[in-house]
Amino acid sequence: MAFDPMRPSELRRVLDAHGIRPDRRLGQHFLIDRNTRDRILRLAGIEPGDGVLEVGPGAGALTAALARSGAGAVTAVEVDRRLEPVLRELVGGEAHVRLVFDDALAVDWRDLCPPVRPWRFVANVPYQITAPLLVRVFGHRPPFRRMVVMVQKEVADRLRARPGTPDYGALTLLAAFYARVRETFSVSPSCFWPRPAVTSAVVAMEPADHAEPPPPPEVFFPVVRAAFGRRRKTLRNALVEDPHLGLDREQVEAALAAAGLDPNRRGETLSLDEFVRLARAAAAAVSPAAPDAPGRGV
User: Quick one: which of 6, 100, 157, 275 has the most CB atoms within 10 Å?
Assistant: First the structure.
């Protein structure tokens, strides 16, 4: 290893040598805590021959450890091309490590993660791209065997929130629809350089194992967005007033009755299973002959 990215003095020396200053706009707070790094590796549960897709390697603290983890392939996607010489100095000699300098929200993951091996996902996610990146992660097929993401603690709280709590919302349902949260732990600002202003958290997730196939996303998520778009309104009013859902009052009341839900409840009190029932009933209310079809706006 050319340098130790976990040692702040060495990290600063290498970055200075390449004229690089951390860009806060990109959420560049580099991990310098070995205990946190090792816990992430344990949570990832990498087995010999596995593939790992890492988004946001930064200066390579986790990338270097992934290269030594026994993984058969490591693909690291970094949007900041300034970091290319730093990462190549660190892991460029590892034949099984692929460095891709591109936007993780735009690059084709199917090319990066060929399904010849099981893949795991590891990322330190900037706040501003958390939701769109998770949409890509959860929608990837075949699904990642395990996903370990570092996010702001408030995002982690939303990912594992319970119905009826302030943190419960559309992001919670997005995660629950695709995955189950396995474990989380908090990460102090002192574990990064430069030090961020917020506490972070690591969340480990695995693909959800539904008892029966859930409704298609294009059926499920419009209902969720409608219910949470007007949190203070009853389910009946929130669904009727949503311009994208395309349901009139009679259809909404029929769907709520079919789902066995009180129309005076609020969306924030519904569990995942209740939202699944509601989505199926809403689709059926629009297209009775095809209950699982998206229908008009659902």
Answer: 275
